[in-house]
Amino acid sequence: MNDVTVARQGTRPGSSDGFEEVLVDVKNLKMYFPITEGAFIPRVVAHVKAVDDVSFKVFKGETLGIVGESGCGKTTTGRCILQLEKATSGEIIFDGQDITKLNAKEMIGVRKRIQVIFQDPYSSLNPRMKVGEIIGEPMKVHNLIPDEADRQKRILHLLNVCGLASAFADRYPHEMSGGQRQRVGIARALAMDPEFIICDEAVSALDVSIQAQVINLLEDLRDEFDLTYLFISHDLSVVRHICHRVAVMYLGNLVELADGDELFDNPLHPYTRLLLNAVPIPDPDIEKARAHEIIKGEIPSPINPPSGCVFHPRCPNAVDNCSKQIPQLREVKPGHWVACTEV
Amino acid sequence: MALLELQELQTQFFTSAGTVKAVDGVSYSVENGETVAVVGESGSGKSVTAMSIMRLIPWPPGKIVGGSIQFDGKDLLSLSDEEMRKIRGRDIGMIFQEPMTSLNPVLTIGMQLTEPMIAHLGMSEDEAMAKASKLLGMVGISEPKRRLSQYPHHLSGGMRQRVVIAMALACDPKLIIADEPTTALDVTIQAQILELMKNLTRELGVAMIIITHNLGVVARYADRVNVMYAGRIIESGTAQEIYHNPKHPYTLALLKSVPRMDKQRTDKLDPVDGQPPDLTRLDGGCSFRPRCRFATDECAKSFPPLEEVKPGHASACFQKNNLAAEVKEVVG
């Protein structure tokens, strides 16, 4: 449907721009989860359209943010790229090869290069393993560093890189705070020396002061190890801070994609505009001066999404045509893509 | 006289790991009709303070060990359980974070909404049902009559939180305590719910304590702010003063570490180093001292008292008048 081929235009303070080499190319990704009825002979009665024809590219070295509310498909998109879900259709081209077509054995090689950091540092670490074992496990499984002593050395190095003292290697997750656990999760992701890390709400569960520490760590690591991040989050303030480009999803669709500053300063899609307006800014003067435009209603069911533009029932700018025509993602100015016919 | 006045409230939990001083000498007041925010990170004691006001601290292991709570002319800590029960849900309403866990999954919305009105106000079932339907309309739920016979699982998270707000308002309370009322909700639903709470509390003249970790929510909705750290209030003042003229290094550090959606990406966030303290091992000094850039020897000796820097703005820091240079850097 919409192929976002765009050389990066944006300029951003504090980042080296001009990312041109495509690392991940997601083309027309669809993920429909079947809903079945009947205990003995299950038959498919409907589908949850979690991701419905989404295309985007991630350039080497950049951080691409995916934002949206619960159920918009941002996490499912990440899980499809990780091959934790088998996509219904579409291509995911990682470094030149379509990984949706790989078999389990071929996938092992790719898996090393794509890692993930999850939201909840409490449930994503095995409570019965020591921190050192948690970080060492992937290196052992993939036979990356067969020698035990070398592996120990690397575990301690990774702990230190992530700002944890070497003594933490002998601790269990329950002995650590949330921020420390998240650092362990990051160290584990780094263990495989990956190129691409999917951060799925990686800082959302942390307190403000700890969150800032972890954000800084992620930024430092990105520069140090030439990492590319797909940063999935509902927290728009964090996304603005960390991402070079930002994609906005709504009900399984990508509605807007632009350079970070461009998207936040000049949102074009009505949903993006209302979403940004809903985020309170920590300054009472700004808040008093801002017009609060509240988005009406709730997100419709992805089982039976609205016809035409999925946002039209809640959209203040909707016209008759919006319920009939599915808007295509189009480039309205260099690097700024919007799926709305009224823009 | 203030509607609610806490004086040196102390709540402790007696655990096998030691005594946790969750609330360690907290004093603040809420006037009729005003919205007061309590901000702080996990473990700062903001929720325990609220539970103490409602006298919902479970014993064992928790206990209110000192201080007083004056509400509407009554000393809440000296009331019997029976008398306290008449205040909970009637004069003080409560809104919790998780709308799913604060509603009973096996009772209809109507039963849950009418129960406090029948119990506290002595209404008949019909009267209560009529009022319940009116309340649901007020909180923006469509087809209120039909909703009364539905169960919580029929509703979305945002709708459930609206029901919880309706329950809190059911008995015309004087005060509502909202503990992270929108933390579990999406940002657009959060905006709907907070706007609703603001409008309703203004219309009905209900005072509200809003407990949150979100500095943006505080900036948008609160008249006055209390910042908590390790069981104490370390700064209090109007939202204006707290955000533009902070007088405590922790408040300043929070403002420096929060990413802001209205700011272009600057070089780095400036986080507070280290971890919050272990509440079983607090010494006599300032509990923020190990993470503080302004700490001096004096800070280790005694806990700085919460003192006014100007009328209505107080800070618990010995260095409160030496922060101007860094404040300027942050606030501009």
H and E order of chain B: EEEHEEHEHHHHEHEHEEHHHEEH
Radius of gyration of chain A: 21 Å
How are the strands of the largest sheet of chain A arranged?
6-7-8-3-9-10-12-11
In quaternary terms, these chains amount to heterodimer
The main sheet of chain B comes to: 8 strands, mixed
Low-pLDDT runs of chain B: none
Find the structural class of chain B using helix and strand composition. alpha/beta
Topology record:
The complex is a heterodimer of chains A (343) and B (332).
Chain A: E1 22-37, E2 43-59, E3 63-67, H1 74-81, E4 89-94, E5 97-98, H2 104-111, E6 114-117, H3 131-141, H4 148-161, H5 178-190, E7 196-200, H6 208-225, E8 228-233, H7 236-242, E9 245-250, E10 253-259, H8 260-265, H9 270-278, H10 284-289, E11 330-333, E12 336-338
Parallel strand pairs in A: 3-8, 3-9, 6-7, 7-8
Antiparallel strand pairs in A: 1-2, 1-4, 4-5, 9-10, 10-12, 11-12
Chain B: E1 4-15, E2 18-30, E3 35-39, H1 46-53, E4 62-71, E5 74-75, H2 81-87, E6 92-95, H3 109-121, H4 125-138, H5 144-147, H6 157-169, E7 175-179, H7 187-204, E8 207-212, H8 215-221, E9 224-229, E10 232-238, H9 239-244, H10 249-257, H11 298-301, E11 307-310, E12 313-315, H12 324-331
Parallel strand pairs in B: 3-8, 3-9, 6-7, 7-8
Antiparallel strand pairs in B: 1-2, 1-4, 4-5, 9-10, 10-12, 11-12
How does this structure look, described?
The complex is a heterodimer of chains A (343) and B (332). Chain A is 29% helix and 24% strand. With 343 residues, chain A is an alpha/beta fold. An 8-stranded mixed β-sheet of chain A has the order 6-7-8-3-9-10-12-11, with helices on both faces. Chain A has a 4-stranded antiparallel β-sheet with strand order 2-1-4-5. In chain A, a hairpin with a 2-residue loop joins strand 11 and strand 12. In chain A, helix 3 crosses helix 4 (148-161), helix 3 packs parallel to helix 5 and helix 5 packs parallel to helix 6. Chain A is globular, with a radius of gyration of 21 Å. Chain A starts with 21 loop residues before the first strand and ends in a 5-residue tail after the last strand. Helices cover 33% and strands 23% of the residues of chain B. Chain B starts with a strand and ends with a helix. In chain B, helix 3 (109-121) packs across helix 4, helix 4 (125-138) crosses helix 6 (157-169) and helix 6 (157-169) packs parallel to helix 7 (187-204). Chain B is an alpha/beta fold and 332 residues long. Chain B contains 12 helices and 12 strands. Chains A and B meet through helix 5, helix 6, helix 7, helix 8 and helix 9 of A and helix 7, helix 8, helix 9 and helix 10 of B.
